[in-house]
Sequence to fold (285 residues):
Amino acid sequence: MEKYDHHLIHDLETLFKANTDRRRSLRWLLAGAVAPLPLAGCGGGGGSSASFGSISTTTASSSSITSSVGSCSVIPEETAGPYPGDGSNYNSNGVANALGLSGIVRSDIRASIAGASGVAAGIPLSLTLQLVNAAGSCANLAGYAIYLWHCTRDGLYSLYSTGITGENYLRGVQETDSDGKVTFLTIFPGCYLGRVPHIHFEIYPSLAKATAYGNKLKTSQLTFPTATCQEVYATSGYSSSASNLSAISLATDNVFSDGYSLQMASISGSVTNGYSASLTVGIFA
Fold:
């Protein structure tokens, strides 16, 4: 239980700051003091290989306040949580910075790199993020970098959690292509006590800048439909996630309770063949 409590305590501490930032942005928007500042973003086992079906384009209806620029909005700023591994904090070995690891620029993030040999088990997930310019008619943003990380099917984080501090799997960086897209091959994340299933990511202006957290442009999170999570968590290896998910919901989660539809990934697939998910991410560029 102790390893889960640490997640929850940190997230509760950051909740006040996150909500304050959003309320401040709303006051600026209503007062017309600056250009519109949307509060939410655009659109939105065991096998190590899978065939992936087509990606659904269905998104949930928004329950948050947004202000669109063209046909998309800026994704909300969210906490990086206690386990970013971007050089901004420490683990038991010192500064935790996966961004400096040889091989961190990669699409398949299921295995550890740079001398570590662990492989994260779980239902395969292919996740595509498309970065667009909310200040420029939602044009695709090529040449940016996205750093993505998430927990294991047991709700643990590489570099930080007991037993896997020497691993660095489920972390990776990619450069957006001409369509503004990156695709990561990973596993469906678990659910730890106090949070709904989620994936963290940071956006950087380029690969060259994606080496330290001080260069990031944006930090946010995405989530998945509850029905899909329940489907995954009914399989072998995710039993603790099933129990933890039953005690939380999107409406009570400390990050997504103020609105999540624009951070809700579209998803298709099955536990047999793996899942494909996608999300469009808007920023001011």
In short: The CA atoms of residues 129 and 279 lie 5 Å apart.
